[in-house]
Specification:
Length: 210
Amino acid sequence: MFLEKLENQLKQQKSLFIGEDTAFRSSVLIPLVQVDGEWHILFEVRSFTLRKQPGDISFPGGQIDSTDLTPLDAALRETIEELGVDARSINLVGQLSPYIASPSFVVYPFVATLELHQLNLSQEEVEEVFTVPVKWLLNYEPYMHLVSVNPVPSADFPFEKIANGTQYQWRMRSMEEWFYDYEKYTIWGLTARILKYFIEIIKCKESKTD
């Protein structure tokens, strides 16, 4: 009886990873727009008056609220709020794999087309927008720098309960930070990591069709 019940419970488990339910969850939209008959990706420059990451380059998106039924709903809501576009003009193309920055932070990226001429930017959140040709991104080689991440236990960490106590060897890791330089803009951080993954998908699809 126990195993049968457990089997049913495990089948109903839909979390992508342990901790997803309690993680800080956000969604972003990769907007594809046409400029002079060529596909571009649209990026935002975050308003310089924002408290968090002012001036950073990002995709439209943000935290998934309790009112959002799905991560896609959050991505669409944020895109409409930030870019001021009509919901009916957003056409979903697909979804990328979630980006799990850590067990406590996950981002769900989506890809959609929208009409560039419909933009009515939120002055509170968006300083400006710019676009980068997909063709340019396919031929560009981003460069990478490493950032060392060293765990630092809190002052009340219970060393007496773990093997080797205060002599425990914490594992330091290196984090890759990718950079794209386009005209006067530098795309890096979370946006660059998602962008790189997206471009690699396109390259893979193109190589298979050649």
